[in-house]
What does this fold into?
Amino acid sequence: MMLQDTRPFCWICHRPKSTCFCETLKPFTTAKARFCLLMHPHEARQRTGTGRITHLLLRNSDLFVGIDFTQDERIAALLTDPNLVPMILFPCPVATALVGAVNKAKADGRMPLIFVLDGTWYTAQRILAKSPNLSALPCVSFVSSRRSRFRFKKQPKEHCLSTIEAVDECIAIIEPENIERICLMQAFDTFVEKQLSFIQ
It folds into this structure.
């Protein structure tokens, strides 16, 4: 029999009140790109994920939970918006450089819409496999010397980043002048420190 967690719960960040830090978040807007986070249901149940924090910090972002987005009307509306150029952040063999895709969208007078898969590598691939409307999108990636600051969670490979770190890297590439993006890493570091305090 599974025991129910009776601790006070925050329905904004989906964490126990004891680990909630919503009041410290400083949301901001990205001017040169829009982000849409696609969270696998398994990830939605993880309290150590960073996708929801990322969404809470980016005012003009979207977050949808699911696996098969083929018939999702919200996704369809984004994909058919003439003012947006949809692309998916995924380091596959045919991925092109993020900066090149963004510059091309800018030259066309349109806003890059970057879909970010939030989950493990396996669950991210499951989303793509189940959502042909997304797997048909051009993949973009970036090269970074950054190493993850996720000190209590081991990444599958040395160069792998958490969702919030990957989005921060994207913004650094797309609009380096946006100094407000420091709020992403400040929130992430606070989150990591809080989790470590419970572990220790």
Remarks:
- The chain has one domain: 25-143+158-199.
- Residues 182-199 form the longest helix (18 residues).
